[in-house]
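Q: Fold this one first, please.
A: Sequence and structure below.
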Amino acid sequence: MAGLVMPEPKADILARRAQIIADLRAIVPGEGVIDTETEMRPFESDGVTAYRQMPLTVVLPSTTEQVSQVLAYAHANGIPVVPRGAGTSLSGGALPLADGILLGMGKFNRILDIDFANRTVVAQPGVTNLGITTAVAHEGFYYAPDPSSQIACTIGGNVGENSGGVHCLKYGLTTNNVLGVEMVLITGEIIRIGGQHLDSGGLDLLGLIVGSEGLLGVVTEVTVRILKKPETARAVLMGFPSSEAAGACVAAIIAAGIIPGGMEMMDRMMIHASEAFVNVGYPLDVEALLIVELDGPEAEVNHLIERVGEIGNGLGCLTLRASTSEEERIAFWAGRKAAFPAVGRISPDYLCMDGTIPRKALPEVLSRMEQMSEKYGLRCGNVFHAGDGNLHPLICYDANKPGELEKAEAFGADILLLCVEVGGVLTGEHGVGVEKRDLMGSMFDETDLAHQQRLKCAFDPNSLLNPGKVFPQLHRCAELGRMHVSGGKLPFPDIPRF
């Protein structure tokens, strides 16, 4: 796994493997426990296939009660647990542990309730993102967050990573569209947070859970808000002579007070790869392409398309084409949605990064990434959520060539450090996982990280849920609570101690 370091497997757990598997079969009978190497092989990695690790065993529960019993058993026996959805994560967040239970939630695949009057859907975590929209489309509704992997990724995984998508600029990330969850703690306790109401009183625990990457509990039910499909939606293709010019156009559109339903950007490499893959009519004589979608009442949409065109033309736009039908709008997006698999046709391997920057920094960051590409001798394609500055550089390499994976990792680290340098963050929607874990110190100091770990300790005091992820060094909760003693003297000696 290149230079990646994971927690050392505990010998006593490995020695008890046969008994652990037998005990788990009693909880999840039938085909609910997988323990052979061949059958466990599909679970050895998530979307970041450069990192692989076989789990101790795989458990596939089908009820919340089974999840509760598995977690209670793991807690009582000190066994780590790694929750897993569809395995589409691009940060190594579902990478198994050699001494840990991989808890697959794929059997939780039913929609439990659709309430059009209240505009909510209650779904199990294994329901796909697109599955929610499909279930409500006949009444003119949809679920707004739409990651490119929406045909496969699950709503439970979306909650874990706080996933976004092309429409998150206007309609928000997962955290803005989830109203409640049912979650099982490591002790086996089943709790509910939020519900079908708009807001909850008290502390915003739901905001803490969305994006927690499986470190706090296992989600077994999700309540989301659904939206009425806009009256009109049209997409505009805008070609530019440089990525810098396209980046400047993004900033200018937002500065003009226009909030598109989605605004995506692709550079020359990605335009050609995507067009060859889906053949939707992208212009091939430009260096950068913007896809800007405007939605709302028809008169408003038509007006905004004119305004966006004026802004683009003022910044050197070379080609401008607005969709004239729903089929054409969908076709415009098809290339963007297929961008990641399209790269598989031009490179044997690639790493997909996920940093977020202030929009005004787009021209500078794109220019510096080109310099990095020359430095490392690796191609890098750019396709990203331009409206909110969420970059997805695709670093191409060949894992069969010695040292290329390491170069790609170093290139990716430099990109993420650049994002932090210009005032951005390490991740926008893919999560930290193991990919960005060791870069957390570039964004947070020791005090920041310690406070984040204390939150984990409140839910999982023995650090059994997804250990080795997010935090560069996972302290034991007892270590975090220790008092600092200097020169043999306690701080504030006048305060009574208990």
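Q: Good. Now the second chain.
A: Here it is, same layout.
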Amino acid sequence: MTATSAQDRPRTVGVDLQQNSEDTRAIVAAIERDNPEAVVRHLPGLVKIQTPGRLVVRRETVEELLGRPWETHEFQLAIVTYYGHVDEWDDDEIVIKWSH
């Protein structure tokens, strides 16, 4: 059995969100649902979410949990910072991953 090298593992991506609204709670729950490997840490006033390789925020999931229409541009109201590259940001989903 060989050990997995750091090169073989996908790089971690993540977002930090303000923890101040029902909208943010729905976004966090949607990210957890759509990214089963995500690790979520709740800090005072902040939610840190990390996942290997790729993080997806799907409009449809957020809307289902929020109980109202939600547009992906609303994500900007909750986000404090992210690491990775925004690979896709359209009306249906946001994808953060490393390009290299």
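Q: Anything worth noting on the second one?
A: The mean pLDDT is 92.
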